[in-house]
Amino acid sequence: MKLKLLIVLPCAVNASRGNTTTARRLAEGLEARKHQVTTIDVNALNDVSEKFDLLIACHAVDTAPLVQAWCVENNSQYVVLFTGTDLNGKPPAHVTAAVAAAEHCISLGAGPGRRAKDLFECARGKTTIIPQAVLSLPRPTNRDVPEGMPALTNESELVIVPNGIRAIKNVSETLYEMAALVKERPQLVVCFAGHDFGGKYSQEFHIELAKHSWAHYLGNLSRVELSAVVNASKIAISSSHSEGGAPNALLECIAAGRPALGSEIAPHRELLGKENCFRFGKEMRRLVRSILEDPETAMLTTRKLEEKVRFKHGLSAESLAWDRLLLTLTKGSS
């Protein structure tokens, strides 16, 4: 049966954010299964007058309460997709109420799923884990290199940190640790990319960044620009304090055949394995050093991760799991 679905985002539909990447990929997968999908940001919800079979609220805190209010007024039902920062800290009462009123909840990984059930007792009997899939980056050309990309030599060792500028992404730690490592490896180049959320953390990060000629912020990149940077890189790093599932950026880098490292949090461990995660800065430097000094072993590890990503994070598996869940929840309504 074909469903009419509305995906509601906590940000603009064209923002360079993980939420938009997830929503775009999910919409394409469900449309391929003959469903009709519309995606909007939560601020546009009050202008929606159409009837939908189901709404998908991306982010329990920033989206679900407003989706709940709209659904009450329009006699509709909704599900909540936990996307990451909505699983940090004790949720306020109105957020818990929105999760409780949802038909179902979806987590992007086992670790975040456990966290959701700890935070929201009402979600314990109605949360399904659907691992985040990856849409491979397009093949770049020489013309696709972003404007701020530094010139590289054959000796350059490029590290990409692709998950944006925000306190929870902990990019300052990566900058600090790479500053220590560059003293012994002057050929190291570090490029940060992704949405900059602004504020005090961003200001302090950019002040520190400006002190280092080897460190660069490339801004929001298109997928083809990101592909060009990933293609030139030796390693991708995520030092996040929290993720809602396997990060889109790391999935894309692994699918492109690049070694990846992550901080010791559940979503990174699920994706990368504990051996590719670090607890402290010293461990980050050790892992980076080992990849750069033994690229053959690093590529063997990366090939195994590529196979894991293809098997566990495939587009078809993701869209099929969503298709089955949504049809069950709507009881085949059209």
Describe the overall structure:
- Helix content is 42%, strand content 15%.
- The chain is of the alpha/beta class.
- The chain folds into 2 domains: 4-133 and 314-330, Rossmann fold, CATH 3.40.50.2000; 142-312, Rossmann fold, CATH 3.40.50.
- A 6-stranded parallel beta sheet has the order 2-1-3-4-5-6, sandwiched between helices. A 6-stranded parallel beta sheet has the order 9-8-7-10-11-12, sandwiched between helices.
- Strand 5, helix 4 (110-119) and strand 6 (127-129) form a beta-alpha-beta unit.
- Helix 2 packs across helix 3 (93-101).
- The longest helix has 18 residues, at 295-312.
- The chain is elongated, with a radius of gyration of 20 Å.
